[in-house]
Design goal:
alpha+beta; single chain
Length: about 350
């Protein structure tokens, strides 16, 4: 155990002694690197950060059902699932393409339109300048960095505005076809009802009456005094005997269509609302404002990290160099020893 401690103490003293012997390079090299880093940082473009915070809404529809879920209120904040969906929408190409076109970010990020890798470079620039993340409170944070402090705030707020536009477009891609199907079904039922009503009116004009009225015709025929009255009621009875069953069938079909239309009304109104209403899908907690100071680069951190890196590098380089020198001396000593043994 004491031998191991002696070896450790020897290595430590050797390490300290080596650093002491090379104290000038150890002190000067990191200092020079720090000065160079400071000069370079003066030429770095300052980036300003604007942040907007939004909460997803719990629902994107107005329910016409009596069994409406109380948690689906349009006043409720969304939960984890809605937050994840909102992040995916924010990261989608739909929003990115609109922002790139609206603010001409290809030119702003100095990407050549003729570059064969322009879309790859644009994607990297987008990731470096615009980021979306969930907070621990369930909200979504939208961060935008730009050399133009006002543009950073404008882009962040425009992205917030696009949440409703893009999500409504996505929703309408499904709800509009569904509404059109519901509308065709409703129009078909309405048309069938009107056609049945028209046929019933036609039969009524001929004297056909509902079932309850036919018994009265026979009673009226029996109570008629004059031949003319008896002839009239006889004609009416004959017409009802001929078309009565048809009339009853048409009444039954018309009533079925009316019941179907009544039951279908809620589904139709729901589909119409979903297809034609522009919903608000988020709560804006904090809109983006123009930054009053730059967010990066942080010169002090860059200089400190460069100084520490240079210090570690020079120490490592000195130790490697001394170790190689030791190995070279050992190698020369062994060769000299072998040479003497050979001569002997």
């Amino acid at each position: 155990m004491s031998k191991q401690q002696d070896v450790f103490d020897h290595v430590r003293r050797s390490f300290i002694q080596t650093l002491y012997d090379k104290k000038l390079p150890v002190l000067i090299f990191p200092f020079i690197v720090g000065i160079i880093t400071l000069v370079i940082s003066l030429f770095l473009t300052p980036m300003f950060k604007s942040t907007a915070i939004v909460f997803p809404a719990a629902t994107s529809t107005v329910s016409f059902s009596e069994q409406r879920n109380a948690k689906a209120s349009s006043m409720d904040f969304g939960e984890e699932d809605q937050a994840e969906q909102l992040v995916q929408i924010l990261k989608s190409s739909r929003i990115r393409n609109i922002i790139v076109d609206r603010f001409d970010l290809m030119n702003h990020y100095e990407i050549d339109a003729d570059d064969e890798n322009k879309y790859y470079k644009l994607g990297k620039a987008w990731e470096n300048h615009i980021q979306f993340a969930r907070t621990r409170y369930g909200s979504i944070q939208i961060d935008v960095w730009d050399s133009d402090r006002e543009l950073a705030a404008v882009i962040a707020n425009k992205i917030v505005d696009l949440i409703d536009t893009v999500k409504n477009d996505m929703v309408h891609e499904r709800t509009i076809p569904a509404f059109e199907i519901n509308k065709r079904k409703r129009d078909m039922l309405e048309k069938e009802k009107n056609e049945l009503t028209a046929q019933l009116d036609s039969l009524s004009s001929k004297g056909v009456v509902p079932t309850e009225g036919r018994a009265n015709l026979f009673q009226a025929y029996n109570d008629a005094k004059s031949p003319a009255d008896k002839a009239f009621f006889k004609e009416q009875i004959d017409v009802n005997l001929q078309y009565g069953s048809t009339y009853d069938g048409l009444v039954m079909l018309r009533d079925e269509r009316i019941v179907k239309l009544t039951k279908f009304e809620d589904a139709y109104e729901q589909a119409e609302s979903d297809a034609n209403t522009l919903f608000n899908h988020k709560f804006v907690v904090e809109p983006a404002v123009v930054a009053d100071k730059k967010d990066k680069p942080k010169k002090a951190i860059i200089i400190i990290l460069s100084y520490i890196g240079a210090l570690v590098f020079i120490i490592f380089l000195i130790l490697i160099r001394d170790r190689l020198a030791e190995l070279k001396q050992v190698s020369l000593a062994l060769k000299k020893s072998e040479s003497l043994d050979g001569n002997a």
